[in-house]
Design a protein that fits this description.
The chain is α/β, with parallel strands linked by helices. It folds into 2 domains: 108 residues, 3-Layer(aba) Sandwich (Rossmann fold), CATH 3.40.50.300; 96 residues, no CATH class. Helices cover 26% and strands 14% of the residues. It has 7 helices and 9 strands, in the order E-E-H-H-E-H-E-H-E-H-E-E-H-E-E-H. The strands form 4 sheets. It has a 3-stranded antiparallel sheet, with no helix packed on it.
Length: 205
């Protein structure tokens, strides 16, 4: 949606005329013919979930393009089979098979405000060339419990099931069991030192 100063919806003509200076919309608007050169800079959020073809379709909107996202997280949603390479995201093409972007091609944000060092170190080595590090306060993020789910580290829980390719009710039931039994009534500690009874539901510990 594009907004004028009066907070009413506008279109690409307002951008071209200067009546509107900041806009947010999906690729359907930016790929239209009348969107040609209406922006100075186009920021593609979650570019790891937008294939190269779609980014090319909207790229005529601006002379400068910023791809923002993390290819190591969720892939782009797909509903079919594509020829080799065409289903890859725009960021995957820029990375060229590397885990992190080269300094001459972009910026890598090397600090996380979400993960305790015990978890971040594992993810960093496996997915980010050991370049990702938590801010010091993340050491405080823990689950406080008398059961097996406590502290802040990776755990292996065996769940036997078969044939669950897209989803697993067995896994969900096991997770719910552990949560109810060991953590629901016990607080977690936030990186700022605050306590929250259900902290583990909303944050990465």
């Amino acid at each position: 949606m594009i907004w004028r100063r009066r907070r009413s919806p506008a279109g690409t003509s307002e951008l071209a005329s200067g009546q509107c200076h900041v806009a947010g919309a999906t690729g359907f608007l930016w790929s239209a013919a009348d969107a040609l050169d209406v922006l100075d800079v186009l920021v593609v959020d979650e570019a790891a979930q937008m294939c190269l073809a779609n980014v090319l379709a909207v790229s005529h909107t601006a002379r400068r393009l910023i791809l923002l996202g993390d290819p190591q997280q969720l892939d782009q949603p797909t509903q079919g089979t594509h020829p080799h390479g065409t289903g890859g995201s725009s960021l995957e093409h820029v990375l060229g098979g590397r885990q992190t972007i080269d300094p001459d091609r972009g910026l890598f944000f090397a600090e996380t405000w979400r993960m305790n060092p015990n978890i971040c170190d594992f993810d960093s080595e496996l997915f980010y060339d050991s370049k990702l590090h938590p801010v010091p306060s993340c050491e405080k993020q823990v689950v406080l419990s008398n059961g097996p789910i406590k502290g802040s580290r990776l755990r292996y829980v065996l769940v036997e099931h078969a044939g669950n390719k897209s989803y697993s009710v067995d896994d969900a039931d096991r997770d719910d069991h552990h949560e109810q039994q060991h953590t629901m009534d016990r607080p977690g500690r936030h990186r700022k030192g605050r306590y929250n009874r259900r902290y583990h539901r909303h944050h990465t510990l």
